[in-house]
Write a structure and sequence with these properties.
alpha/beta, Rossmann fold, 9-stranded mixed β-sheet, 6 helices, 34% helix, 19% strand, globular
Length: 230
């Protein structure tokens, strides 16, 4: 896997990431389901390459971050892992994550009410939309993950972390590794609980960053997954 210094890359704020997503969908018609597929496939690839798990528990929220985790669960199951999924808000899944959960059900991937122990825990509970501290089932699942002996791989951000300031909420995931998407987020660079930091390509064209006035080097010419070194 290729490496690049995280200090050599621009880091996005939460508002900038929202604008990236808006331009992708509204201006370029690259749909959420396409970005989610890229994120989830990269998540599964990193999980296998870095941790080689036989069993995986995926903790998934109701929004886009959770949807990426559900895609990752599908790819992990396809590659022979024993996968179980726990939804923090099964009655509130937004349409694209609901579609991903339906696929898993049709595949026979178990969606459990309580998280079972596993060789690897994947945190896909809360993405950059966090406002305030995690609460309810999401907070309970974060606490559960932090108590596990297994490593935790977070998607985009450790749940509970403010991606702009880097301030951890109460509670917040303490990740062994974090796979962030498109570009690093400002809050990940020095925050506690991020662990090893990786970056995945979700097919954002350079035109998007050019329109936002953000200079970005050609990152993914040799690999769609990068290790971001300090």
């Amino acid at each position: 896997m290729h490496s690049v210094s995280r200090r050599k890359l621009p880091a996005l704020t939460t508002e900038q990431m929202r604008e990236v997503d808006r331009v992708m969908v509204e201006d370029l018609h690259i749909e959420l389901v396409q970005m989610m597929e890229n994120a989830g496939r990269s998540l599964a690839e990193l999980a296998i390459d870095r941790f080689s798990p036989e069993s995986v528990t995926v903790l998934a929220g109701p929004g886009g971050n959770g949807g990426g985790g559900l895609v990752g669960a599908r790819h992990l199951a396809n590659r022979g892992c024993q996968v179980q999924v726990v939804l923090s808000a099964p009655g509130r899944l937004t349409p694209v994550p609901a579609h991903q959960a339906d696929i898993l059900g049709r595949m026979g991937v178990h969606i459990a009410e309580r998280p079972p122990p596993a060789d690897l825990v994947i945190d896909a509970l809360i993405g950059y939309s966090l406002l305030g501290d995690p609460a309810g089932a999401a907070a309970e699942l974060i606490a559960w993950a932090n108590d596990q002996p297994a490593p935790v791989l977070a998607l985009d951000t450790p749940s509970g972390l403010d991606l702009t300031t880097g301030a951890p909420g109460n509670p917040a995931i303490r990740a062994t590794a974090t796979l962030t998407l498109a570009l690093p987020k400002a809050g990940l660079l020095d925050a506690p609980g991020v662990g090893e930091l990786y970056l995945a390509d979700i097919s954002v064209p350079s035109l998007v960053y050019e329109r936002m006035g953000i200079p970005v080097p050609g990152l993914f010419r040799q690999s769609t997954l990068l290790r971001l070194t300090p």
